[in-house]
Amino acid sequence: MDISRRNFFVAAGAVSIPLLLAGCAGFSTAGTKPTPRKGTLTFTTWGTDSELAGFKTAIARFEKANPGSTVTLNAVPYEQMFTNIDAQLQAGNAPDIFRVPYYTFGSYAGRSQLLDLTATLPSGFSDRFTPQAWRAVQNADKPFGVPHHTDTSVILYNKALLASAGVTAIPTTLEKAWTWKEFEGVSEKLRASLPDDKFPFAYNWQGNGVTRWLSWLFQADGRFLAKDLTSPAIDSKAGRAAVDFTKSFFDKKWVPQNDSVKSTTYASDIWYSQTAAMTWGGAFLLPDAASTLDFEWGATFAPRNVRGGSDFGGNALVATAGTKQPELATAFLDFMTQEKSMRDFCEAASLLPTRADLVESGITFAQRPELSPVFIGQASTVQAADSGQVASPSMSKIITVLKDQLEQAFIGGQSTDATIKGLSDGIAAATAS
Amino acid sequence: MTLRVEERSAAPAGGEPARPRESGPRRSRRRRNLGETLAGLAFLSPNMLLLGLFVLVPLVGAVSISLQATNGFGSGRFIGWDNYVRLFSDGLFWRSTLNTALFTLIVTPVSMAMGLGIAALLNSVLPARGVFRSIVIVPMAISGVATALIGVLIFDQNSGILDKMLKFAGLPSIPWQSGQGAAFASVVIVTLWWRVGFNMLIYLAGLQGVNPGLHEAARLDGANGWQRFRYITVPMVGPSSFFLLIMNVIYSFQVFDIIFVMTGGGPQNATSVLVTYAYDTGFVTRDQGYAAAIGVVLLLLTLAFTAIQWRISRTRDQVE
């Protein structure tokens, strides 16, 4: 049989095209065996000892599952994390992956610094997360990261101090959480029983934690951004109720004066020193509290008003827009949010999962495991509309507005009306720029 | 030019220019001068290079960014003087400027006065003065952040040691963290604790260069201790005072770490200074163009102060 050169090339082409297409396919499609991915990723994060240990374990598992791939972990102090990341992004040598709080996520996603994962994530990927978690990593309705874990604040209380004030009925289910009115009664009882230099509670809204003030707004069924996520919506009955109620904490001496939003003293430290009977705190405090506190303490749900509400704390994992390995980076993000990876990480580090199946089945913290349902239950009060507002690209500027205005309201004697006006004007200016 | 004229005048008319007799030594002197110039430049070049790279280039960059609207990433948009115009109507900028000026006006003279007083004491025949000198100097060896953390422990108004001592003594506690004046005082006190050692050290070096005969002569003339201190010690440490004045003012203009850690600029911006405000604007709200404009204003203030001091110093040199 004569084979002409022309026929040979046609035949060779016909054979090689499927192979070439297969090579270009990148992510494995349904029904085919996953293509081993190779390459090196750099991953910058901060973390507690248990968080870093969790990351190292997950990275080792990822490298084993993807022979030829390596992930270089760069652990930095939180204080340096974002000045470094910003400088690296500006200089064009940012890591492939980094960890970012949800309230900072929008600043990067809204400024084209993160990898749009729409094309590289497998179909149905979003189904693994709770709606509020998935909403927290969206920008312009596109995913720019994965919700790695969450955390939220519940009430941590000093059992002896509450008992001595006659507060013995502590809510044990989300449905029985104190209403604002009931919480007011508890605070008044505590105020009456405690000496002047001790206080009913301390609230954890210091520094960038000022976003936790929004929990009161959400409990009053309010919003700070309208549905377009640009117009201010805080000038409302709910906004006024939230400012009024939280301002009264200082006027009625329910919190120490140095518990304001710009204070450098954290609420947890005030509670640790038994200066306050209660504090709001995330699950991340459990390991420290369990090992260091020498008084008996428990946890209960945050108060509710029109509805329950809480802060959507925690962090996302994101890939940078300039990564040279978008597929490997996406595969890593996928791996880190798989059931085992997330369960191991959250249980060891006392953090809450963002996967719907883990929220459903529950997890068990390594420290104070009996408190796990309180935190998971509290996290369920966060609505997707709440976390979506916090993911605004203007959030970093809105945080400054919240800090300035609430500080004036809490310890500067600024009226509720003036505070609402300041917040509304400030948010409008922040979203306009 | 002069040299060429001289050479031409030395050449006989109509013939080959005669080699002037003194041209050999002149050429070698010129060569030596050139060599010295090159050596000088060579010695200077590392400093100039570093200065250019790490001071001048960023400075030009900061001025350039201050003329732009930025969001922290990518290239900014040129907006001319808008950021500077915005400063005029920014209440927090003026509050921070006034706080910076007040901080400078308190910390500079007080730290110098305390430094001189302690140096005068430790320059005398005090027993164990080496130990005392070390105690005063030790804060210098501690980082500003660590110093501020110690300050937080001392001035915490709920569980700090200072308020506990006040209470123990039957005195009312002071709202170091929520009272505006008290918070400002707390950062001044911690700064003084940190800075007095440096002032003392410089003054001590200055005092040890003062001729003891001057004091002896004054004593023989009937001058008492205060008069000797006022009319001999203080004038004779003039160069040290000038150096410390410049250093303290520049430090005070640039104060950051102690305030950032102790008060974060609060309460109600009572301790916000220009650098903490620029930091918040640049790295928290990511308005880096505006933050750069604040930085440039700070630079201009420092330059203006240095220029004034420069003129005063020349006068002082003449007097001395």
TrEMBL record, chain A:
The keyword Transport applies. GO terms for cellular component: ATP-binding cassette (ABC) transporter complex, substrate-binding subunit-containing. InterPro entries: SBP, TAT_signal. Pfam families: SBP_bac_1. Residues 1-30 form the signal peptide. Keywords: Signal, Transport. GO terms for biological process: maltodextrin transmembrane transport; maltose transport. One of its GO terms (molecular function) is maltose binding. PROSITE patterns: PROKAR_LIPOPROTEIN, TAT. It comes from the Bacteria. Belongs to the bacterial solute-binding protein 1 family. PANTHER family: MALTOSE-BINDING PERIPLASMIC PROTEIN, MALTOSE_MALTODEXTRIN-BINDING PERIPLASMIC PROTEIN. This is Sugar ABC transporter substrate-binding protein.
